[in-house]
Specification:
Blueprint lengths: L1 E7 L9 H5 L5 E3 L12 E3 L10 H5 L5 E7 L4
Antiparallel strand pairs: 1-4, 2-3
Length: 76
């Protein structure tokens, strides 16, 4: 099963929230406890281990601030 890691360029995120609507595992939300350099509420990942590397978040981001790295999960 593929797993992934989401990398967010937080200081470029405008907090538009589009990516959160398209995440099938519901692990993205805006971090309302802080703002970035531009004064926006940035995106955060709530549970990194649940990412399935679908890349929907990256595809939906109008400013291309999200990168998804995909790797195969090792069976133990």
């Amino acid at each position: 099963m593929a797993k992934g890691r989401i990398i967010i360029e937080e200081d470029r995120c405008k907090g538009c929230n589009l990516c959160t609507f398209y995440c099938p595992v519901d692990i993205l939300k805006l971090d309302t406890s802080r703002t970035n350099k531009k004064g926006y509420t940035p995106l955060m990942v709530t549970d990194k281990d649940k990412c399935i590397a679908c890349s929907f978040c990256a595809m939906m981001c109008p400013d291309s601030v999200i990168t998804v790295e995909r790797f195969m999960k090792e069976d133990n």
